[in-house]
């Protein structure tokens, strides 16, 4: 009964991440790559994303602190961050990255700063939600790392 | 269009994933692995060139465009100048036609937007007659 409850919780938590727009189709691609050889592949990739992207966040923060903004540099950092975020299906983060890059192209420093705050918010929110999701997945056991309904 | 050297290790297809993004490398390597392709990783264009200078050969190279030290355009030009005839597929998030063409002109056989999916990789392999 407990296992059934946990499985239901996994399914509901997962669905809410898509319904609320936090994740897109790319996350399903990651799930499809998960198998018996790598039963925690999705969690490992997401963990790697948050570990590696922290450096990019810091770089962007430092670049935004300068008196004279280098929009080419900012755009370069964000291009990288957006690519990485897209690869795990981070839909809201990706959308804010696109907006940031538009502000870069327009040379709008205030827009960049404002959007970056939103990026950090979405990035942190997604991290919390995915951590909670993976915790339930682990509790539910290995069966939940198999094929997902599309 | 370049043609493949053929596998350097019997009949198994070998691939080199060239990207500075470790997340992308993890995803693309897993994708290739699931398709039975033996894969290696280089973190930038210079590492890819150095691997070839050391005598390594690959049937397929997935080349990112934007990388530090040596980008994908420079690396592809260098590899072709060295006489590397592997299939080189450019992968990038760039979607502007001019930028894609600039990358293609460096010596690519194909270009795909990343992240790659199984169907994109299969279509690459079909184009180069590695699968039916």
TrEMBL record, chain A:
Ranges for domain HPt come to 38-133
Job of this protein: Functions as a two-component phosphorelay mediators between cytokinin sensor histidine kinases and response regulators (B-type ARRs). Plays an important role in propagating cytokinin signal transduction.
What is the organism field in this record?
A: Salix koriyanagi
Q: What is this protein called?
A: Histidine-containing phosphotransfer protein
Phosphohistidine modification, residue list? 79
Tell me the GO BP annotations in alphabetical order.
cytokinin-activated signaling pathway; phosphorelay signal transduction system
A GO CC term assigned to this protein in UniProt? nucleus
Q: What is known of its domains?
A: Histidine-containing phosphotransfer domain (HPt) contains an active histidine that mediates the phosphotransfer.
- A Pfam short name: Hpt
> Which GO MF terms are attached to this record?
histidine phosphotransfer kinase activity; protein histidine kinase binding
Give its localization.
Answer: Cytoplasm, Cytosol; Nucleus
Q: Where mainly found? A: cytoplasm
UniProtKB/TrEMBL annotation, chain B:
- Give all residue intervals belonging to the Response regulatory domain: 14-129
Annotated SMART domains = REC
Record PTM 4-aspartylphosphate, positions in chain: 64
The answer, when asked if Phosphoprotein is one of the entry's keywords, is yes
One Pfam family assigned to this protein is Response_reg
Question: What is this protein's name?
Answer: Response regulatory domain-containing protein
Annotated membrane-spanning segments are: none
**InterPro entries assigned to the protein according to its UniProt record, in alphabetical order:** CheY-like_superfamily, Sig_transdc_resp-reg_receiver, ST_Response_Regulator
Query: What keyword terms does UniProt attach to this protein?
Result: Phosphoprotein
